[in-house]
Amino acid sequence: QVLPPPRDVVDDVSVSLRLWDTFAPPHKDRRFAYGRSDVVVLCFSIPPPNSLHHVKTMWYPEIKHFSPPAPVILVGCQLDLRYADLEAVNRARRPLARPIKPNEILPPEKGREVAKELGIPYYETSVVAQFGVKDVFDNAPPAALISRRHLQFWKSHLRNPPRPLLQAPFLPPKPPPPIIPPPDPPSNNEERPAHLLEDPPPPDVILVLQEKIKIYAHKIYLSTSSSKFYDLFLMDLSEEDQQSAAGHGGFGAAVTAAAERMLHQEERHHGRDFLLRAASFDICESAEEAGPGQRKPCLRASTSDGILRGNRYENGERGLRRGRNLSSWSRAFTSIQEEMAEDPLTYKSKLMVVVKMDASIQPGPFRAVLKYLYTGELDENERDLMHIAHIAELLEVFDLRMMVANILNNEAFMNQEITKAFHVRRTNRVKECLAKGTFSDVTFVLDDGAISAHKPLLISSCDWMAAMFGGPFVESSTNEVRRGPREGGDSSGDNQEVTRFVCVWQVALPHTSKSCMRAVLEYLYTGQFSSSPDLDDMKLPPPANRLCLPHLVALTEQYTVTGLMEAAQMMVDIDGDVLVFLELAQFHCAYQLADWCLHHICTNYNNVCRKFPRDMKAMSGENQEYFEKHRWPPVWYLKEEDHYQRAKKEREKEDYLHLKRQPKRRWLFWNASSSPSSSPSSSAATASSSSSSS
């Protein structure tokens, strides 16, 4: 006895239930366990087939030998293992129990066949799913009472005992859809710009320090990190300025005049204090150089406007560029010119921009400034912080100067926020350069047009691009000839076109649209995936997989699944799209999207098969095998449901025939005032009259 004896009411009869277990080993004598038993619940385990085999060969014969009149109820336990994850179950059972194999789990019809052969009712239970236990104990007392109807006492008290109820099949819970978590960004994203500065791919800018030290850099990195560099690289270095130098005393006078014109434009757009920013921060080499009445070097906090100024000339409108003197335009630069220089990577001559820096700029601090412009970070252990701040003032990189001030004031922890703001501002500038095609040196030829890009950013963010542009491929040495009107032509249409040889890489990407490629480029530039209304979900995984970008593949999977789920919530039929996405995802290694599509098809298997029978038959053998194994509802449930409905109809038909065979009861109403000596005919008449009156 394991519980206090509960009581139940069956057909207006109070019944006390007591539960006993046969705890003896199979080879021991258990005759004492069957004594005075009213009903025997014979349980077996669904996973091992030997358990059901022992029911017929050992347990049922033993029960009938020691307790012949007791009714038997066959119960299959551990029903939940039919739909459970057997790998997880076996890991939990290891090493105390033998692992369960999928082919060892018995289907429901096996237990029902044995029960039919033995002539006993059959139920299935699961304690984990809380299914079937109540059905067993609700049907055990009626089974015991029905077996005692031959006794006089029970025959008089049990008028209409219920028959064993039919058990509805257990529907497994619908499996939840696979969760696609937001992927972690690549770990080497922050290190790549610094590596690009140390070991540059084909550069397009040469920064000359002290007339002999050359530092190779890239326009796109410098211009998106510093407004001063952005204005510098957009200067007009056309041939007209050189021609006008002949009437003004040579090249220097012409350059000076052109610089003055540009200064007037800068004053008109940005104020007259634009050129005085660099003069606000001068340092002394040491404390001895400062006079006795002068203060020691200090830093003044300042903020940058962060404005990315637009280009006054398009690529084809600037004409041929030569050079310009910058001594009157900025204290940081001496001159800028275009010349043929040797590429440090390919050792081939190509057109590059050579910028000569001021003689006061030292190589060590300047490299620290360049590292900030590439990565947004400043090492706290830098020695020449004052020189770094001086260069930052000359280049108008005021955020870097604030970082130096924080380090000197022992407040370096505040530099993290400055770095975050640097990346946000730079991301916006990079997007603007991508949209306008500024400083672009790569052209992707797509199905619906072309889109310009920037090779340094592509190389630093994509190994596939780095291998293509740096290896012996056709794309790494393709030049494009651009034509544009010469600057200075009148509006009457007399503009002369000039031919410019610009080093532009052309890459053909078939089966790719501009909207899709623009999303890929924004990811490569900023590390973020942004959607647009014209972006087609089905065209995202192929380029992401082609460029070997697993993080972008995961982002496209998340974006696609979110769109499909939103469409399903709006009652839009997505079954056809899911079938297309399944083949696309499996082909392009989008495994999370493929798992989600498989789950959707499995949980809507009947509807999908009814709508797209040919597509389902054309699926690969692996997919069809997966569908048969994981479809919901499972096959065994559909068979059980069909058997249950047929048995239910038969039971209803039997009940109807049973009620039809019952004799109809006749109600007789006797008149209390009638005398016993009255004749039957008069009594019948009185009864009929009473009946009519009532």
The N- to C-terminal Cα distance equals 58 Å
Major β-sheet profile: 5 strands, mixed
Number of strands: 15
Strand order of the biggest β-sheet: 7-6-10-9-8
InterPro entries: BTB/POZ_dom (IPR000210), P-loop_NTPase (IPR027417), SKP1/BTB/POZ_sf (IPR011333), Small_GTPase (IPR001806), Small_GTPase_Rho (IPR003578)
Protein name: RHBT2 protein
Region (Disordered): 169-200, 672-694
Domain BTB: 203-382, 440-533
What is the structure about, briefly put?
44% of the residues lie in helices and 12% in strands. It is an alpha/beta fold.
How would you describe the overall organization of this protein?
- Residues 189-198 have a biased composition (Basic and acidic residues).
- Residues 169-200, 672-694 are annotated as: Disordered.
- With 694 residues, this protein is α/β, with parallel strands linked by helices.
- Helix content is 44%, strand content 12%.
- Strands 7-6-10-9-8 form a five-stranded mixed β-sheet. It has a three-stranded parallel β-sheet with strand order 3-4-5, sandwiched between helices.
- It is elongated.
Question: Which helices and strands occur, and which strands form pairs?
Answer:
Blueprint: E1 7-10, E2 13-16, H1 31-34, E3 40-45, H2 49-66, E4 72-77, H3 86-93, H4 108-118, E5 122-124, H5 133-146, H6 152-157, H7 191-198, E6 205-209, E7 213-217, H8 219-225, H9 227-233, H10 239-243, H11 251-270, E8 323-325, E9 333-342, E10 349-357, H12 363-375, H13 385-394, H14 398-408, H15 415-436, E11 442-446, E12 449-453, H16 455-461, H17 463-470, E13 480-485, E14 497-502, E15 505-508, H18 514-526, H19 541-546, H20 550-569, H21 575-587, H22 591-603, H23 605-611, H24 613-617, H25 621-630, H26 635-661, H27 680-693
Parallel strand pairs: 3-4, 4-5, 6-10, 11-15
Antiparallel strand pairs: 1-2, 6-7, 8-9, 9-10, 11-12, 13-14
Protein name: RHBT2 protein
Keywords: GTP-binding, Nucleotide-binding
Pfam family, one: BTB
